[in-house]
Amino acid sequence: MYKLLLVIIWLFIFFMNSYAKNVYAKGVEQKPAQFISHVFNGNIPKVQVLWLSKADKTIVAEIMQHKFNRLRIRYWQKTQATTNDTVWILNEIGKEKPITIGVHIKNQQIVELKVLAYRESRGDEVRHTFFTKQFNLAKLTQNNELDRHIDGITGATLSVRALTKTARLALWLDNKINAQ
To answer: Model-level pTM?
Structure first.
């Protein structure tokens, strides 16, 4: 009887552990420093800071659809004769937890959008390349919208919205620093 009880407890723990691994997303996909290094082929430019004015925060709040309390945003930029590359590492809440997203922009269009850390319990399909490649070559319209439709994923609506808003924000920020 005692051995049977131990086997049942062991099986319960084993199945709960397996279930927990499947329910909770993987977490960190890639560290921000690795993403930045990848974009700039190991030759990482010095980090820069964009200070946001009150007017900027109003526009950012419209894009993100919530109040934006940060005063500054860090970014990495490499400008050459014919290209201008920037990398933005941004966080946005999916349903309850932040999603860390790296956005590489070249000449005012997205080259790569990558989920660096996904902390939600559902909707982690947005971290896969089959989804994020939709953002490649996206630009910002005059209304601060993406110039293309992004297909959603059933059960990941809030995560899809978070990535879409972040893509729009990164493009707007890129336009802002290049207009100065």
So the answer is: 0.83
